[in-house]
Amino acid sequence: MGEVSLETSAYAKIILHAAKYPHSAINGVLLADGTKIRDGAKNQDLDIVDTIPLFHHSHNLSPMAEVALTQIETMAQSDNRIIAGYYAACENFRDNTVEKCPGQKIAEKIVEHFPSAVFIVVNNKKVVQHLDSPAINLYKYSEGKWKLKDANKVMFHTPYAFVTVSHLLERGVQKDLVDFDNYLDDLSQDWTNLGIEKLIASINASNTIDCKEKDYR
């Protein structure tokens, strides 16, 4: 398979989503830079530039998923991005394999449309530890099932990704993350989480870690 790179904000939103709902399974989709995608090519490199949190309790409600994916695809196309994968975390702390994850049908639908799609599974045990290494496992669809791949295939855009995410967690930023369950309960909430993206961008720009300010919404 090709190499997979992750923007810090894309990785952060995965971990923040899992941390906000530690006793629930969660899922979401991965968005890649569409300008780097070759039509029809298999096993190509993916630059994951964003993640969209989906659900923490509506995993099995297909109408909800259809609404979410339609809105996400419309937004992605306007930004020259594509839905290029899926992420999830299991409800059970010890279940860190793709077979136990929720929303398998969503992942299968994505790979039908984009054969180079990847599946990221949150390693629950690493989320609660100091994040000095990726708290995720990477899977690729092959021969009819998702297969675990070498973690070294995942690269990060900045060397500060783990430190940034660790400090976001310490400051409780996960409380402000919005998934589609939150959005469907209150349509005024921002499921793109632009405020969190801006906070992370400011941290990256200054190479400092100071998440005490809460005026990033």
From TrEMBL:
<dbReference type="Pfam" id="PF03665">
    <property type="entry name" value="UPF0172"/>
</dbReference>
<dbReference type="InterPro" id="IPR005366">
    <property type="entry name" value="EMC8/9"/>
</dbReference>
<protein>
    <submittedName>
        <fullName>ER membrane protein complex subunit 8/9 homolog</fullName>
    </submittedName>
</protein>
